[in-house]
Amino acid sequence: MEDRKVSPLHILSSSQFDRPFLDYMCVLTDTIRRFDKSKEGLMYLQGLLAHKRAMLYFTQPSTRTFLSFQTACQIVGMKTNEIRDSSTSSERKGESIEDSLRTFSSYVDIIIMRTPVPGLCDRIASLLNETDRPVPIINAGSGPDEHPTQALLDIYTLNRSFIRQGGIDGKTITMVGDLKRGRTIRSLSWLLTNYTDTRIIFASPPEFRIGDDLRQKLVAKGLRFEETDQLEDALRNTDAVYVTRVQDEYDQAGESKKVDSSRFHLKHHHLKLMKESAVIMHPLPRRDELDLAIDADPRAKYWRQERNGMWTRVALLTKIFGVDRKIVLPEL
Ligand code: NCD
Prior knowledge:
This protein is α/β, with parallel strands linked by helices. Helices cover 36% and strands 14% of the residues. The protein starts with 18 loop residues before the first helix and ends in a 12-residue tail after the last helix.
């Protein structure tokens, strides 16, 4: 019989995750965090993937995603290589991006990539599936398109925040800012379609409303959502507010400057409008859309969200390489 190759688990889009997977990842991440409490626990994690190597190929700016992936690799004992600027690689000599990425697959066991090009991660994953070394690809941000691992850590943060309030089901999440080009918005909105009676309020200037493709997908999935340009009304009824910055790196000719986004800045005086139990999130980096004075409020969860990202990525690496089986989970 012909030997059929099994494709690895690529992480390309948040639309590939279903509810059982999301619930599993939340429990796995919680369990893995407990290993952080002792030297023995951390040494155990370091042994899990000490035989694996990762390539971090990040050709768009990144602080958190890069560092949290790199640190996650270190936590499970993986060695890492990195390219953060394609002008230092043979792409500069005219090598195609496909050939460059195929080259990485000769040396490492996984490629974690951030790129300005939507769809590139999918293309590379399909190409590698046809080769003798089909290493897994993780999409760590693909232009304005998708950011599936950010969406996973956002779900983990929401889930943890609502653990005593019945979880994410039935909650209202308000997303604020540049909803048109924010990839975190696209990926998280899609994941929220996996929950029951969850509602999204999209609050943005008219110029930055969600794209038609996302709107149609959410309608087709039956997710309840509304779009508004009244931030204050939305805040009164929300369980979580997810603030994002203007994604002006995608401007063609400085058009963001012509949009008045100031009404969509979350200010300290907004806090009194919000529920006591509400949570405030931001994928970071922030500019003036999120008041520094909010940091001291117990509802601000973005610094935790950032650290949750590292643990979610540890969990994801163990899942991709099948060593999640070596983490003893509580009964689901
Ligand atoms: C986000 C991104 O890169 O899309 N940042 C992140 O990964 N934490 C959000 C942003 O850059 O605005």
